[in-house]
Write a structure and sequence with these properties.
The protein is α/β, with parallel strands linked by helices. The chain has helices at residues 39-42, 48-54, 65-71, 83-89, 110-122, 136-148, 158-163, 165-173, 187-195, 203-215, 229-235, 237-249, 264-278, 297-300, 343-350, 361-375, 381-400, 418-425; strands at residues 2-3, 13-15, 60-62, 79-81, 94-99, 127-132, 151-157, 177-181, 220-222, 255-259, 286-292, 302-307, 316-321, 355-359, 405-410.
Length: 432
């Protein structure tokens, strides 16, 4: 039912996919000059070790021992064979999932939060600011900051702040200060707050607030939970473990699936496998990113330069985007409500190495309920997008009789999302 690794099998290095890209990434642009951004400009918001990783061309980056020590609290994470789900669906497909919900914050996010907190600590930083959608990233950064004695300020998208009070409480339990966004405390937030104090917010607005707060405070840096190269780098520990575990199971996946908002959990699982596709070792591997119809960045967005935040404080980056002013509907998959995606993921999508699908909210919760009732874990709404796609592929295998191997990332649990499940069970969940 599950494949377990011992602590001594935790990967000692992160994998950087940049050397294997089919073409170079377009450089980020300075928001003032529109010229390629100097790494020095990034030092205003990130510490030097993070900037070095952001621009690194090295295939392997050593994981510091201090980070590995904290990783060992929950890593390696299990790989499960979803036999009960297979039986329920009556499919010949073999379904596996990497269970990142076992971390203390309940998701994949601490894989990068711990690393970022460590690099900021050794760089003399005293305080970190960030944004969070569903609260998984904010929880993880608050959790990580406690290990290194850092203050943590989290701007939480207001719709999620209201929908998920227990995520706020979890962040505060770990010492974080949580501010609903948009807020009246920053210029970036005030313009939206003054228009409507109950504005639902977006990740783009919250990012603007967090960056402004970081830039206006001494000994403070900004920390991002997705999108940028160094974040995706840290998350590859997921896929590196999964490759070993799939070998233990005796299979190599035909499909690798992850939900996508900014791209961190998707890339974390997929990039170590995508290396095999990029090198020609596994040319038929299908890698699928799954997003909400309410925020269809890959499936409907334009591939162009855009700001990573709403106000325009970040560098311009080349990505699929719905426009930095886009405010998505208040769906319960708060972590997927982002107008853009990671440049690395977008380039691979543009070049045809990955594909994308989008689902409406009720379709996603139908899959979540099926998974909870067969595998026992109540999945996060974000992760349930990947589950929906895995189920659809498995049902197609039932029609064709093909015994495909499916691997998806269960990026987090949904125990702080039970109000959304309650709405679905009562038939009150909007089909957005």
């Amino acid at each position: 039912m599950k494949y377990l690794l011992t602590e001594d099998k935790i990967p000692q290095k992160w994998f950087n996919i940049v050397p294997y890209l089919p073409k170079p990434l377009d450089p980020p642009l300075d928001p003032q000059t529109k010229e390629p951004l100097s790494p020095d400009k990034l030092l205003a918001i990130f510490p030097e070790p993070i900037v070095e990783q952001e621009v690194s061309q090295e295939e392997w980056i050593d994981i510091p021992q201090e980070v590995l020590k904290i990783y060992s609290l929950w890593r390696p994470t299990p790989l499960h064979r979803a036999r009960n789900l297979e039986e329920y669906l009556g499919t010949p497909a073999k379904i596996f999932y990497k269970n990142e919900s076992v971390s203390p914050p309940g998701s994949h996010k601490p894989n990068t939060a711990v690393a970022q907190a460590y690099y900021n600590k050794i760089s003399g930083v005293k305080r970190l600011t960030t944004e969070t959608g569903a609260g998984q990233w904010g929880s993880s950064l608050a959790f990580a900051c406690q290990f290194f004695g850092l203050e943590c300020e989290v701007f939480m998208v207001r719709v999620s702040y209201n929908q998920k009070p227990y995520r706020r409480i979890l962040m505060e339990t770990w010492g974080g200060k949580v501010v609903p966004s948009p807020s009246p405390y920053t210029q970036a937030g005030k313009r939206f707050y003054d228009e409507n104090p109950e504005h639902s917010g977006s990740l783009g607005i919250a990012i603007s607030e967090a960056i402004e707060s970081a830039l206006s405070s001494k000994d403070t840096k900004y920390s991002l939970g997705s999108v940028l190269n160094h974040v995706l780098l840290h998350q590859t520990i997921i896929g590196l473990e999964a490759k070993i575990q799939m070998e233990m199971a005796g299979y190599y996946p035909d499909y690798v699936i992850g939900c996508i908002g900014g791209g961190s959990n998707f890339a974390g699982l997929a990039f170590p496998f995508l290396k095999d596709k990029l090198t020609g070792e596994k040319p038929n591997l299908e890698v699928i990113a799954v997003e909400p119809k309410a925020c269809p960045t890959l499936t409907e967005g334009e591939y162009r330069y855009d700001y990573g935040d709403t106000v325009g404080l970040t560098p311009l980056i080349k990505m699929h985007t719905l426009g930095h002013g886009f405010v998505p509907p208040p769906i319960h998959a708060g972590g997927l409500r982002y107008h853009g995606d990671a440049p690395l993921v977008c380039l691979l999508y543009k070049e045809g190495y990955i594909s994308a699908s989008a689902y409406k909210q009720r379709e996603v919760f139908e899959a979540a309920l099926t998974f909870a009732r067969t595998e026992g874990i109540v999945p996060a709404p974000e992760s349930s997008h990947a589950i929906r796609k895995a189920i659809d592929i498995a049902l197609e295998c039932k029609k064709t009789g093909k015994e495909k191997v499916i691997l998806f990332n269960l990026s987090g649990h949904g125990y702080f999302d039970l109000n959304a499940y309650d709405m679905f069970l009562r038939g009150q969940l909007p089909d957005t």
